[in-house]
Amino acid sequence: MSWLQRLFARRRMERDLDKEIRFHVESQVADKVRSGISEIEARRLTRLEFGGTEQIKEDCRESRGTLWFESLVQDVRYGLRQLRKSPGFAFIAILSLTLGIGANTAIFTLLNAILLRPLPVQNPSELLLFGDGQAQGSTSSIPDGSTRLFSYSLFHDFRQKDTSFSGIAAVDSSQFATKASIGGAAYQTTHVDLVSGSYFSVLGVPAFLGRTIGESDDGADGAGPVAVASYSWFQRQFNGDPSALGKTIRIQSHDYTLVGVARPGFYGYTVDQSTDLWIPLSMEKAFSRPGWNGLGDKFFQSLYLIGRLKPGVTATQASAETNLLFKQILRSYLGSQPPQKHLDDIAHASIQLNPGGRGVSYLRYAFSVPLEILMAIVALVLLIACANIANMLLARGVARTREVAVRMALGASHRRIVLQLLTESLLLAFLGAAAGVALAWKASVVLLSMATPGPDPVPLNLTPDMAVLGFTLGAALVTALLFGMLPAFRAAGLEFTPALKDGRGSSSSTTRGALARSLIVGQIALSVVLLVVAGLFVRSLINLSDVETGFDKHNVLVFSLDSSTANLPHGTPEEIRSVQLQEQIEDRVQNLPGVKADGFAFFTFNQGAWTDEVLFLGIPRTQSNGGEVSFNITGKGYFTTMGIQLVAGRLFNAQDTQMSNKVAVINETMARRFFPNGSAIGRRFGIGETPDHPGEKEVIGVVKDAKYSSLTEGTLMAAYFPCTQNPGFYGNFAVRYAPGANRQEIVSRTRRAIAEINSNILVNNVGSLEEQVDGSIATQSLVARLSSFFGIIAVFLGCIGIYGVLSYSVARRTSEFGVRLALGARSHMLLWMILRECILLLALGLAIGVPVALSSTRILKSLLYELSPLDPTAISIAIAAVSVMTIAAAWLPARRATKIDPMQALRTE
Amino acid sequence: MKTEDRFDLPQGTLDLLIMRVVALGPIHGYAIAQRIQQMSREALQVQQGSLYPALHRLEYKKLLTSNWQPSETGREAKFYELTAKGRAHLRAETENWKRLTDVVGLILKGTLEGIS
Questions:
Q1: Confidence class of residue B2 from pLDDT cuts 50, 70 and 90?
Q2: Half-sphere exposure of A559 toward its Cβ, with a 13 Å CA cutoff?
Q3: Which CATH architecture has domain B13-115?
Q4: What one-character DSSP code corresponds to residue A167?
Q5: Residue of A12, A19, A20 to mutate for B, most B C-beta atoms under 10 A
Q6: Do A23 and B30 touch (CB under 8 A)?
Q7: Residues in CB range of A640: below 8 A, 6 or more apart
Q8: Which value does ipTM take for this structure?
Q9: How many CB atoms lie within 10 A of CB A847?
Q10: Measured between CA atoms, how close is B108 to chain A, in angstroms?
């Protein structure tokens, strides 16, 4: 009989055991009776000789080897019965555990998805990423430091020479949200990654259908008009129909053949973007982008490189070889007589090899410190919840003294009692964890969308995986031990004889009280820490939202336009036609009722940046004018639309045409840095550290400073150029409407106006400038909101604890208070007596919590905007809030003590 | 030196005695206790509290097997029998025990002479 069968045959075995023991006893009694002893005496003697039958039975069960499991099942049943008997306790305990474990699981789910989880590729630990992957876009400057982006030429030259890697893959750092049409159907937004021919083989991602992109697709320029689809895009577009292979997909007036579908679950190398189609890098030119003259240029650096280490080669060896080769190749790109400056630059150039198995992620860059802080916060909340439940269990332990004593008298061992009580704790923890996982599943999705607001949700898979479930299981176990261990040992360690006699466990109440009180002190201390942290984040957020942006974010809509399907003559002398189309749109929308101003712009706010140095004619390079300048390309009405005020000179107007003098409007900071004592108007500058076209642009106006990429940036130099002289992609179209105008109407009228002018210009999405500003501090506002939420929960849990302990203490001392009142004590004296205890606990809690907070908030420094981590306001508010709440929680039981009727109280004893 | 007419069993020997008794044929727990007492000419007092756990342990180790049969009084009792594995185990353990007692006896004999 296997132990499993034994387990299921438990009931029968119990019956058999009972029968066997009874048979023995009866036989022994019968023998004694036969030898002439009276039956009563025989029974007495047998009992003496044989011993306690329950004890023997328990020993027998134990020797069967399945006892642990049987008693576990028994304990779980018993525990469930106990919980059903006190639904109030069960409800509060499970609720606080659900919140505590759920919050931990939710944050861990994000942490896991963003920071920990490897990509679904072959042996991810062998992959090394060149650079840290924290740049996106392109640069043409000569490498002079730790390099993150690489040119196509470098990729080819490097992989021919290196010996450390079994293969190197390249992928464009920017994903292209472009328009694709399948077999002539309507254009749809499609996310495209440009990859090298080695991409799929190096990552080890096989085709689910057809084939992946191979080396032959990535040969000469334009050689590989093929596309590989992601599994989910294939499912969406073709419902998994294999006949989709061979279909034609039209992207920006080029046709591609769908040759395969990648393995399900693979969404590309960038974790928080999901790719729909992969296209060989050889097709880069076909992705017509102004100023994007990719493959041929040795210093057009836009790629991530990912290498797979050969077996036996260490990362250190690979790094040494990589850096040596990198410099050699760069040197060969500079020609025979390079300027000394360039030689110096590449002497400093280096490649840092980083573990590449987790892909790159922008969320990881922005969100990892806040996530770690949040993880610590929710862990502290769970700790407070544990203290609370431990306190409730201690109180229950006293109430259950009699039950424990009875069970021990019947032969249950200490171990058995402790195990049973721990099982009850585990039961609570697992019920809480189960509900917590369900809560976390939903909550992590909500948290992610709060952290990354915008029209497109971040495609991050947040379904609980083994890591998350393992974490939750571990959290539940640790939690149960934390809150269950102490009460269980206390309960089992009771002297049971006196407990049996009076049934109220008076002998242990003082130590229990001390334990309960130290738990309360701990809770108060943790609550203060959490509230200080929350206060700091909230005050930092307030500082951020008070930042002077330099533009008026209200009543402005930003339309994101895509002209790639309109077949405009980009990159040809004809391209001014696309600017004329822009001007038509600006004029048409300007005249719509309710619209006050409008204008195109390369960037509005928080959309990235185009930066470089500039040099004015006749002005020497100095420390203060040597920094990067943020450039923007705008329509005539842009400044009015944004509410950026002119300080001197003029704004762009109809005279600034393709043919006329190249002009620029600059901001006050740029004007001041280059011309501290004079006017910038009429002065000329060129772009670049040593400009290719010196003095190309003439300053015609100076405008007020603004924030460009983020609210936290310092004071930046900025220059604006007119669209007419810098034709480019359409990007953003900003529209200011009259306050009170119907926003929806403005949107639909603008859409109609654009469609009337050219129906092939697509409106991707519409948002408001205010949303862009708020979105730029979404992480900070999420952290502030969450830390406040958890801080409040912590304080509430603490209050419940205090309320519970003092209520219990008042109830126990009813007779004492009765006597005191009878002897003439005033009720306010009693009130004070109880409050005094609470104030003592509070003082102790603060004495521990405030120094801990003061010494630990330093780690938040990088997350606080213009706020000291020792901000006195935040600390005072936290102390005040905890004090008020603690005394309020103590007030109720204290009031109850004063309402005691002395006669009633004395009679109950 | 006071001699005891009944003494307790050394650790671990109860299993051996039980198997020896059961080897004689199917037998229930009460009879095992009595038989051990008789065979040792009343000198051994089997701790009744440890008999049943030992039986269950041996059964769990598959050295014994059991079935319910009517006893001599007509009441159903649980009868134990040796399994093949139990028989082999008993043989080996008996062999061990003999060797052990011979060696221990040899040493003690010398010692006793030395003391007296």
A1: very low
A2: 29
A3: Orthogonal Bundle (1.10)
A4: E
A5: A20
A6: yes
A7: A596, A597, A599, A651, A736
A8: 0.82
A9: 13
A10: 33
